[in-house]
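User: Could you check the structure of this?
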Amino acid sequence: MSVCFLDTTLRDGEQRPGISFTRQDKLDLARALDAWGVGILEAGIPAMGRAERKTLDALHGLGLKAEVLVWNRLTEADLDLCLAAGYPAAHFSVPVSDVMLRGKLGRDRSWALDQVDRVVGRAVEAGLRVSLGAEDSSRADFGFLCSVYDRAVRAGATRVRYADTLGLLTPARTLREIGALAATVGVPIDFHGHDDFGLATANTLAAHEAGARVLSCSLLGLGERAGNAALEEVAAVLDFLSPEGSDPPSRRNFSELVAACRLAADRAGFPVPTHKALVGEGVFSHQSGIHVDGLLKDARTYEAWPPETFGGRRRLRFGKHSGPAALRHLAAQRGVVVEDDEARAFLEALREEMGTNRGVDPEAAFNALVRSRGGRL
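Assistant: Sure, the predicted structure tokens are below.
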């Protein structure tokens, strides 16, 4: 089944506390995401004010291949802003759980249905391409959720969003609910999952398997609280691990996507975590003697795909768990020959010291060995 990636880095990603993208940041990120192949860019919120609308105007002016989508509350006031700006596509969000409707808005289910009829209907009549988002879908009465989607489609919405706003789904429940909706809704389903329980990527993949054609993600999983499904993780699984994935995968350039992730981290003002799946600088580092020995014989033993596929490179590191083969290989790279029995003796002494003294630096000990033999550091 085909998939369309909807990237929400510029909207939900920026809602992570401490992040504020400049207009130029958003333009640069949009270009990078568009070049990689994102189908929809959820770019911002017109109701935030004039500065945000200027940025949205600039994004629309880039001439991207991706659809530039603006996010709105399901209100006539937000619709008026979209119409005044002439945006071609707009997303409208309405709470669908009773706790959200009553606790946040002081409204009931009948109000939500009336708003769908009124706002979506008027937007479609004015020529907007409309998607309707159901906030807090995973805590909504399922029958009512279906009614909201039905009203939206009847009013002319071309896509509906299932929003797991608090990250409460499991993959099994996602399969059941998205599968049931995909069989009845009649328009593409956009799945938007949050990562509060660490399941956003798994739930997004389950939603795709169940029939969701649009997957809402963000670079590095940036977003509210624990964040969203990470675009790079979802895309990599679909290309590399799904049955329909090519071997070797060739549909998308992951080096470009990794570069976009690093750009997002740079503009957000924090480093990519060293061991962040796929994109961290440490994810292709190896220390264990068993692993390094295997890699030196055949890289495929512990690397299913070459690191370069993901814009990374292999690093062999020396540490407590290194074996004689790794020590000899690393020493040889620095111009030093270490015999096997010497390597074993050195490792035995180092492990003994590390077992009794906290704070021993194995790399410093290795460098001292190399230096004593006249090797390169």
